[in-house]
Automatic annotation (TrEMBL), chain B:
PANTHER family: LEUCINE-RICH REPEAT-CONTAINING PROTEIN 49, PROTEIN PHOSPHATASE 1 REGULATORY SUBUNIT SDS22-RELATED. This is Leucine-rich repeat-containing protein 49. Residues 353-389 are annotated as: Disordered. GO terms for cellular component: centriolar satellite; microtubule. The lineage of its organism: Eukaryota, Metazoa, Chordata, Craniata, Vertebrata. Keywords: Coiled coil, Cytoplasm, Cytoskeleton, Leucine-rich repeat, Microtubule, Repeat. It comes from the Eukaryota. Residues 306-339 form a coiled coil. It is found in: Cytoplasm, Cytoskeleton, Microtubule organizing center, Centrosome, Centriolar satellite. The gene is LRRC49.
Amino acid sequence: MLSPERLALPDYEYLAQRHVLTYMEDAVCQLLENKEDISQYGVARFFTEYFNSVCQGTHILFREFSFIQATPHNRASFLRAFWKCFRTVGKNGDLLTMREYHCLLQLLCPDFPLELTQKAARIVLMDDAMDCLMSFSDFLFAFQIQFYYSEFLESVAAIYQDLLAGKNPNTVIVPTSSSGQHRQRPPLGEASVLEGVEASLFSQCLENLCDRHKYSCPPPALVKEVLSNVQRLTFYGFLVALSKHHGINQALGALPDKGDLMHDPAMDEELERL
Amino acid sequence: MIPGKYRSVSGRAANNVNCGLHLVIQTSSLPEKSKVEFKLNKETPSFSGRLLQHDLERNYSSRQGDHIHLASSSMPSFPILQRSSEEKILYSDRLTLERQKLTVCPIIDGEEHLRLLNFQHNFITRIQNISNLQRLIFLDLYDNQIEEISGLSTLRSLRVLLLGKNRIKQISNLENLKSLDVLDLHGNQITKIENVSHLCDLRVLNLARNLLSHVDNLNGLDSLTELNLRHNQITFVRDVDNLPCLQRLFLSFNNISTFESVCCLADSSSLSDITFDGNPIAQESWYKHTILQNMMQLRQLDMKRVTEEERRMASVVAKKEEEKKRESHKQSLLKEKKRLTINNVARKWDLQQHRIPNIAPNQDRKVSDSSQDPSQLHGSTVSAFPEETGSLDSGLANALQGLSVTDTHLVEVDGDTLSLYGSGALESLDRNWSVQTAGMVTTVSFTFIEFDEIVQVLPKLKIKFPNSLHLKFKETNLVMLQQFNALAQLRRVDQLTIDPQGNPVVNFTLWKYYVLFRLSHFSMQKINGTEVTQNDMIMAERLFGILAHVASSELPQYRMISILGDARKKQFRYLLETKGKKPGLVNEENNDSKRLVGENTNRAMLNYTTRDVYNERLEEIKEKKKFCKMYMEDLVKEATEINMKNEALQKLWPQMFIELVRDAVIEIRNKNSYMKLCLQQITDQK
């Protein structure tokens, strides 16, 4: 707990990193809104309940999207809640459209934006035939990547576009003794014929990106792993690979492994009781 | 020899019928051998009876021929007829030549006084050689092969002309026969009634068994009393009202199928006897009373007397039909108006849904179009349908009609269904509905109204129409499963119909299960016409049960209360308080609310706020959020300051401690001076 890094940070930064202020602000806001009811059983109890629910991950239920998006923990909790509530849908084997999944999301968050769901669907469907049906697990994992790492993915998309267009954003920083350097970049004409970008080049750019954005990006090692298996890849190919990678899922910690996706004995028990 | 009193025989019921022939042929004692009976060959219903009589006659007629000598004349084709002078004197005014196998009319010499001439049952093809018989009154050419009426132009005194059972194709050449009383043309091939307008003395006209397809051209027959048109192909009848004396009209076995085709009969005041049997019209259910109603003057129909009872029935039925027609006309008018209004509402709805925001001139045009159309519609549907104000009681047991019809919305109560078209119709729920009307309504149908708007009036619906069990939604923009949460506030819903048109939510695979899950306390029977099975309910629970569980159990209490809202707060608190009590102590009053709460609590978290209301709320919170942020910032500032101070203290403390100790030690080094110092301090204190 009293690690030196923690104490090395100045106050604001420390608070910001842990998003303490977000939760404090939200708590006080909720307190203000429900003054009459809370005054009945005391402020202390309220705060206890609030932070308990934050720890359990139930604080995001039926909240507005701006709050859900605010911190990584919120996002992870939301993913987990979504999984818990609608796992049964997946278990039933129904294939649903993007709109229907969006509907389910809206049940938990009334103002969840459609664009996010659309982007997630694009990952599953490889940007093709947006009206196709998707399985629960496919959608869930893609949605996880899209939602949890949305800012990261935007930056990646920008980098990808640049690479496609032939611009290398890292011309300044490319180290001289990189292992991927010996591979010549194909001339512009060829790049447009071949699909996607070079994996290694892409990997380098992403590494730099991860360094710059310390937060909210997948573990760089795992990213590298994903990219080392192929020579060329498209943007959506990369995203699909990310979504299916077990390691990343585990690092996130919100959802169980794909194999265990349908298992939740605690909830099943509850279900039996109903 | 002289036949019995000449009387027209026309069946059993014709006792009171007298065609008033003035030709009376006296009876006198007849020697047996020459007894002959002349009967008018009229087509009668008992025709077979007539035949029998003819057969009888045959026995007599042959004897008549004994007295006739048919000598051959100078002209090879025409025989000359001569009678013995004895006969001439005896039967000076009549001559019978029936069954003489004549193929032509013989020349009749020296019989200028002849008044009665009988050529029945021969093979005569042309009427000839009788022009000199200018006193002829009665001419019988029944059952010959005559193809054309001719050779009669000199017979100005002719009163009875019998041309039945020939091959005549056309009525013609009767111009001079102005005294004609009886004209019998039955059993011919006549297709048209013509050239009879001058026969103003004609009383009986028989055109049965011809090829007539319609009846007209009857003007001029001012004396016609009886018109026999049986066994033709008549489809319509006209001009009968121009016959001032017509009493009997026989139209049996024709092709008349509607009353309109014989409607002129209604205008004939003289008609008392009519037959329609054998026509298609006689098979209709409305036949008898329509005829009786339209022809009040009738005494006999199809040979049966018309009784007073029948007449009364006919008028009653006719009145009812009139009313029905009027009613249906009114209904169709209303329906038309309704249809136009609904079209208008639909158009407005479409515009609303697919409005293109950028193209300003187009939009203007669209707007002006839509503003023109309503005014046009308004102009075209100018009917006096004023807005109904006040209560709507009605004595009629059957359907109430459209109550309020304007151009932009439509409200209609039809027995047990309340239909609302267009968002303006929602205001009608505020009206004073009579308890009877409102109580009968079990189905409420919404069309062309945004679901979010409907949600806001659901409480009103609950109060005003307590028996509404079936809700129908069409073109109401149902897009989210969440919207169904709003229906939970109703008292009870048995059936739900969501029309796919205009409701995208129906395209979802899970929508029915969600409805069943969220509205499980209604125990719905049918969704979109299909019965709800136990399996459906189980599946719904299985799919969404966890959601309910999570919503109710994992939310902190203050959240639950805030979501439930004020109305439920009390119920919820009550439930919390009574959790500890024994179940038996709960009293009757609270049973209802308890049941509701008990069933719903875990679902009640799932409610629906319309998009606008939600955004409003978020806006309101913004202020609070800003305040909170500032407040927290202040707190943080304070905390960091304190923290800094704390840290600073931590750093400086060792040094400070050492100095403190050093100062103290230095002070106590010299015991005596320290003692003096302390005493000094104590005395100074006073």
